[in-house]
Specification:
Length: about 280
Protein backbone atom coordinates (compact mmCIF):
# COMPACT_ATOMS: atom_id res chain seq x y z
CA UNK A 1 0.00 0.00 0.00
CA UNK A 2 2.86 2.34 0.76
CA UNK A 3 4.36 1.81 -2.70
CA UNK A 4 0.99 2.35 -4.35
CA UNK A 5 0.66 5.69 -2.59
CA UNK A 6 4.13 6.66 -3.78
CA UNK A 7 3.20 5.81 -7.41
CA UNK A 8 0.00 7.84 -7.36
CA UNK A 9 1.81 10.80 -5.87
CA UNK A 10 4.52 10.60 -8.55
CA UNK A 11 1.98 10.46 -11.40
CA UNK A 12 0.18 13.49 -10.03
CA UNK A 13 3.40 15.47 -9.62
CA UNK A 14 4.36 14.75 -13.26
CA UNK A 15 0.97 16.02 -14.41
CA UNK A 16 1.21 19.10 -12.21
CA UNK A 17 4.66 20.14 -13.40
CA UNK A 18 3.56 19.49 -16.98
CA UNK A 19 0.80 22.03 -16.58
CA UNK A 20 3.23 24.52 -15.04
CA UNK A 21 5.54 24.04 -18.00
CA UNK A 22 2.67 24.94 -20.31
CA UNK A 23 2.52 28.39 -18.76
CA UNK A 24 6.15 29.06 -19.61
CA UNK A 25 5.78 27.54 -23.08
CA UNK A 26 2.89 29.89 -23.85
CA UNK A 27 4.89 32.79 -22.43
CA UNK A 28 2.35 33.48 -19.74
CA UNK A 29 3.74 35.12 -16.61
CA UNK A 30 3.94 32.86 -13.58
CA UNK A 31 2.66 34.64 -10.48
CA UNK A 32 5.28 35.31 -7.84
CA UNK A 33 3.17 33.70 -5.12
CA UNK A 34 3.04 30.42 -7.08
CA UNK A 35 6.83 30.36 -7.38
CA UNK A 36 7.16 31.04 -3.67
CA UNK A 37 4.67 28.29 -2.87
CA UNK A 38 6.58 25.70 -4.86
CA UNK A 39 9.86 26.89 -3.39
CA UNK A 40 8.49 26.20 0.07
CA UNK A 41 7.22 22.78 -1.05
CA UNK A 42 10.35 21.64 -2.85
CA UNK A 43 13.13 23.10 -0.74
CA UNK A 44 13.97 21.25 2.45
CA UNK A 45 12.87 22.86 5.67
CA UNK A 46 15.59 24.04 7.98
CA UNK A 47 15.36 23.87 11.75
CA UNK A 48 17.53 24.13 14.81
CA UNK A 49 17.58 22.11 17.99
CA UNK A 50 14.80 24.15 19.57
CA UNK A 51 12.26 22.47 17.29
CA UNK A 52 12.74 19.09 18.99
CA UNK A 53 9.95 18.73 21.57
CA UNK A 54 11.00 17.70 25.05
CA UNK A 55 9.86 14.24 26.10
CA UNK A 56 8.83 13.89 29.73
CA UNK A 57 9.94 10.94 31.85
CA UNK A 58 6.33 9.75 32.04
CA UNK A 59 5.92 9.83 28.24
CA UNK A 60 9.24 8.03 27.78
CA UNK A 61 8.20 5.32 30.25
CA UNK A 62 4.88 4.76 28.44
CA UNK A 63 6.44 4.74 24.95
CA UNK A 64 6.68 1.58 22.86
CA UNK A 65 10.19 0.17 23.38
CA UNK A 66 12.24 -1.07 20.41
CA UNK A 67 15.84 -2.10 19.73
CA UNK A 68 17.93 -0.71 16.85
CA UNK A 69 19.27 -3.46 14.55
CA UNK A 70 20.86 -1.28 11.86
CA UNK A 71 24.43 0.05 12.40
CA UNK A 72 22.89 3.37 13.48
CA UNK A 73 19.62 5.31 13.54
CA UNK A 74 19.58 9.04 12.75
CA UNK A 75 17.39 11.38 14.79
CA UNK A 76 16.34 14.63 13.07
CA UNK A 77 15.32 17.92 14.66
CA UNK A 78 11.97 17.88 12.86
CA UNK A 79 9.58 15.63 10.92
CA UNK A 80 11.11 16.09 7.45
CA UNK A 81 14.10 15.05 5.33
CA UNK A 82 15.47 18.60 5.27
CA UNK A 83 15.80 18.86 9.04
CA UNK A 84 19.37 18.26 10.25
CA UNK A 85 20.46 15.16 12.16
CA UNK A 86 20.95 15.98 15.84
CA UNK A 87 21.66 12.56 17.36
CA UNK A 88 22.73 9.10 16.21
CA UNK A 89 21.58 5.99 18.09
CA UNK A 90 23.91 3.01 17.71
CA UNK A 91 23.04 -0.61 16.99
CA UNK A 92 21.69 -2.51 19.99
CA UNK A 93 20.43 0.60 21.78
CA UNK A 94 16.86 0.81 23.05
CA UNK A 95 14.55 3.64 22.01
CA UNK A 96 11.02 4.64 22.93
CA UNK A 97 8.48 5.54 20.22
CA UNK A 98 6.51 8.47 21.63
CA UNK A 99 4.28 9.95 18.92
CA UNK A 100 3.71 10.25 15.18
CA UNK A 101 3.33 13.10 12.70
CA UNK A 102 2.33 11.77 9.27
CA UNK A 103 5.17 9.37 8.31
CA UNK A 104 7.65 10.59 10.96
CA UNK A 105 7.95 9.37 14.55
CA UNK A 106 9.23 11.13 17.65
CA UNK A 107 11.58 8.81 19.57
CA UNK A 108 13.68 9.09 22.71
CA UNK A 109 16.71 7.07 23.79
CA UNK A 110 17.79 5.97 27.27
CA UNK A 111 19.87 9.14 27.72
CA UNK A 112 16.79 11.32 27.14
CA UNK A 113 17.86 12.47 23.66
CA UNK A 114 14.83 12.89 21.39
CA UNK A 115 14.38 13.37 17.67
CA UNK A 116 12.32 12.45 14.61
CA UNK A 117 12.79 9.27 12.58
CA UNK A 118 11.36 8.37 9.16
CA UNK A 119 8.91 5.47 9.18
CA UNK A 120 11.00 3.33 6.82
CA UNK A 121 14.03 3.60 9.13
CA UNK A 122 12.06 2.98 12.29
CA UNK A 123 10.47 -0.13 10.78
CA UNK A 124 13.91 -1.79 11.01
CA UNK A 125 13.77 -2.09 14.80
CA UNK A 126 12.71 -4.97 17.04
CA UNK A 127 10.34 -5.07 19.99
CA UNK A 128 11.04 -7.11 23.14
CA UNK A 129 9.72 -10.31 21.55
CA UNK A 130 12.31 -10.09 18.78
CA UNK A 131 9.88 -9.33 15.95
CA UNK A 132 9.89 -6.13 13.84
CA UNK A 133 7.94 -3.24 15.30
CA UNK A 134 4.52 -2.70 13.68
CA UNK A 135 3.87 0.95 12.82
CA UNK A 136 0.59 2.47 11.61
CA UNK A 137 0.73 4.15 8.20
CA UNK A 138 -0.49 7.62 7.40
CA UNK A 139 -4.08 7.28 6.25
CA UNK A 140 -6.86 9.45 4.92
CA UNK A 141 -8.33 9.94 8.39
CA UNK A 142 -5.13 11.79 9.38
CA UNK A 143 -6.11 14.49 6.88
CA UNK A 144 -9.20 15.23 8.97
CA UNK A 145 -7.26 15.30 12.23
CA UNK A 146 -4.63 17.89 11.26
CA UNK A 147 -5.63 21.53 11.56
CA UNK A 148 -3.37 23.20 9.00
CA UNK A 149 -3.31 22.52 5.27
CA UNK A 150 -1.69 24.13 2.24
CA UNK A 151 -2.91 23.58 -1.29
CA UNK A 152 -2.40 24.40 -4.94
CA UNK A 153 -4.86 24.07 -7.85
CA UNK A 154 -5.02 24.46 -11.62
CA UNK A 155 -8.32 24.89 -13.41
CA UNK A 156 -10.56 26.69 -15.84
CA UNK A 157 -12.99 29.55 -15.19
CA UNK A 158 -15.05 29.85 -18.34
CA UNK A 159 -12.44 30.51 -21.09
CA UNK A 160 -9.65 31.51 -18.69
CA UNK A 161 -7.06 29.30 -17.00
CA UNK A 162 -6.82 29.72 -13.25
CA UNK A 163 -4.00 28.91 -10.83
CA UNK A 164 -4.42 29.33 -7.10
CA UNK A 165 -2.64 28.74 -3.82
CA UNK A 166 -4.61 28.29 -0.63
CA UNK A 167 -4.17 27.91 3.10
CA UNK A 168 -6.74 26.33 5.37
CA UNK A 169 -7.41 25.89 9.06
CA UNK A 170 -9.74 23.25 10.48
CA UNK A 171 -12.08 24.60 13.17
CA UNK A 172 -13.43 21.13 13.97
CA UNK A 173 -13.30 17.66 12.45
CA UNK A 174 -15.88 18.56 9.80
CA UNK A 175 -15.68 22.37 9.45
CA UNK A 176 -12.80 24.49 8.20
CA UNK A 177 -11.95 27.84 6.64
CA UNK A 178 -9.75 28.57 3.62
CA UNK A 179 -8.11 31.68 2.21
CA UNK A 180 -6.81 31.67 -1.34
CA UNK A 181 -5.11 33.86 -3.88
CA UNK A 182 -5.36 33.07 -7.57
CA UNK A 183 -4.48 34.35 -11.00
CA UNK A 184 -6.45 34.21 -14.26
CA UNK A 185 -5.03 33.99 -17.78
CA UNK A 186 -7.08 34.36 -20.96
CA UNK A 187 -6.67 35.65 -24.51
CA UNK A 188 -8.14 39.04 -23.59
CA UNK A 189 -7.52 39.55 -19.87
CA UNK A 190 -5.21 38.80 -16.97
CA UNK A 191 -6.20 39.19 -13.37
CA UNK A 192 -6.10 38.21 -9.73
CA UNK A 193 -8.63 36.70 -7.35
CA UNK A 194 -8.78 36.81 -3.56
CA UNK A 195 -11.34 34.90 -1.54
CA UNK A 196 -12.21 33.24 1.76
CA UNK A 197 -14.42 30.16 2.09
CA UNK A 198 -16.17 28.05 4.69
CA UNK A 199 -15.57 24.32 4.06
CA UNK A 200 -17.88 21.56 5.30
CA UNK A 201 -16.81 17.89 5.11
CA UNK A 202 -19.86 15.97 6.36
CA UNK A 203 -18.38 12.47 6.61
CA UNK A 204 -15.06 10.69 7.04
CA UNK A 205 -16.30 7.13 6.48
CA UNK A 206 -15.17 6.85 2.86
CA UNK A 207 -11.75 6.74 1.20
CA UNK A 208 -12.82 9.77 -0.86
CA UNK A 209 -14.09 12.62 1.32
CA UNK A 210 -16.73 14.95 -0.20
CA UNK A 211 -16.94 18.60 0.79
CA UNK A 212 -19.04 21.67 0.05
CA UNK A 213 -17.85 25.28 0.14
CA UNK A 214 -19.38 28.72 0.50
CA UNK A 215 -17.19 31.73 -0.15
CA UNK A 216 -16.88 35.42 -0.89
CA UNK A 217 -14.12 37.26 -2.71
CA UNK A 218 -12.92 39.84 -5.18
CA UNK A 219 -11.40 39.68 -8.65
CA UNK A 220 -9.39 42.33 -10.46
CA UNK A 221 -9.10 41.99 -14.24
CA UNK A 222 -6.99 44.00 -16.67
CA UNK A 223 -7.72 44.02 -20.40
CA UNK A 224 -4.75 43.17 -22.60
CA UNK A 225 -5.80 45.58 -25.36
CA UNK A 226 -4.75 49.17 -24.66
CA UNK A 227 -7.73 50.88 -26.30
CA UNK A 228 -8.86 54.31 -25.07
CA UNK A 229 -11.44 53.97 -22.32
CA UNK A 230 -10.33 50.53 -21.20
CA UNK A 231 -9.97 50.34 -17.45
CA UNK A 232 -9.35 47.57 -14.92
CA UNK A 233 -12.45 45.65 -13.86
CA UNK A 234 -12.80 45.17 -10.10
CA UNK A 235 -15.79 43.12 -8.94
CA UNK A 236 -16.86 41.19 -5.87
CA UNK A 237 -18.21 37.65 -6.12
CA UNK A 238 -19.74 34.91 -4.04
CA UNK A 239 -19.21 31.22 -4.66
CA UNK A 240 -20.77 27.90 -3.82
CA UNK A 241 -19.19 24.61 -4.74
CA UNK A 242 -18.59 20.95 -4.08
CA UNK A 243 -15.64 18.63 -4.45
CA UNK A 244 -13.75 15.63 -3.16
CA UNK A 245 -10.47 14.99 -1.37
CA UNK A 246 -8.65 11.73 -2.07
CA UNK A 247 -5.63 10.64 -0.05
CA UNK A 248 -2.85 9.57 -2.48
CA UNK A 249 0.02 8.84 -0.10
CA UNK A 250 2.37 10.38 2.44
CA UNK A 251 0.65 13.60 3.58
CA UNK A 252 -0.73 14.56 0.14
CA UNK A 253 -4.41 14.70 -0.77
CA UNK A 254 -5.68 15.03 -4.34
CA UNK A 255 -8.44 17.61 -4.68
CA UNK A 256 -11.11 17.95 -7.37
CA UNK A 257 -13.63 20.77 -7.23
CA UNK A 258 -16.43 22.59 -9.02
CA UNK A 259 -17.61 26.06 -8.06
CA UNK A 260 -20.14 28.47 -9.48
CA UNK A 261 -19.22 32.14 -9.07
CA UNK A 262 -21.81 34.92 -9.04
CA UNK A 263 -19.87 38.05 -10.02
CA UNK A 264 -21.48 41.40 -9.18
CA UNK A 265 -20.56 43.69 -12.08
CA UNK A 266 -22.12 47.03 -13.12
CA UNK A 267 -25.47 46.46 -11.41
CA UNK A 268 -25.79 42.96 -12.85
CA UNK A 269 -24.80 39.47 -11.79
CA UNK A 270 -22.72 37.29 -14.10
CA UNK A 271 -22.31 33.56 -13.38
CA UNK A 272 -19.04 31.73 -14.09
CA UNK A 273 -18.26 28.01 -13.80
CA UNK A 274 -14.94 27.05 -12.22
CA UNK A 275 -13.48 23.54 -12.55
CA UNK A 276 -10.12 22.73 -11.00
CA UNK A 277 -7.80 19.99 -9.82
CA UNK A 278 -4.95 20.20 -7.34
CA UNK A 279 -3.57 18.90 -4.09
CA UNK A 280 -3.43 19.69 -0.40
CA UNK A 281 -0.74 18.83 2.10
CA UNK A 282 -1.64 18.58 5.78
CA UNK A 283 0.53 19.34 8.81
Amino acid sequence: MHLAGRGKAAVFQRWLFGRLGAFFYNEQPMPVFILLFFSLWLLPAQADNSHVPAVSEEAAAQALQATVIDPYLELHTGPGRGYPVIYVVEKGATIGIVSRRTSWYLVVDKQGNSGWVKRENLARTLVDTGVPVVLPETRHSDFLQHRVRLGFTLGWQESAEQVAAMAGFRLSRHIGIEAEIGQLFSATTNGQQYSASLILEPTDRWAVTPFVSLGYGRQELELKSKLPGNRPLEDNFRSIGAGVNWYIGFNFVLRGEYRTLDIFSDNQTVSNDLWRLGFSSFF
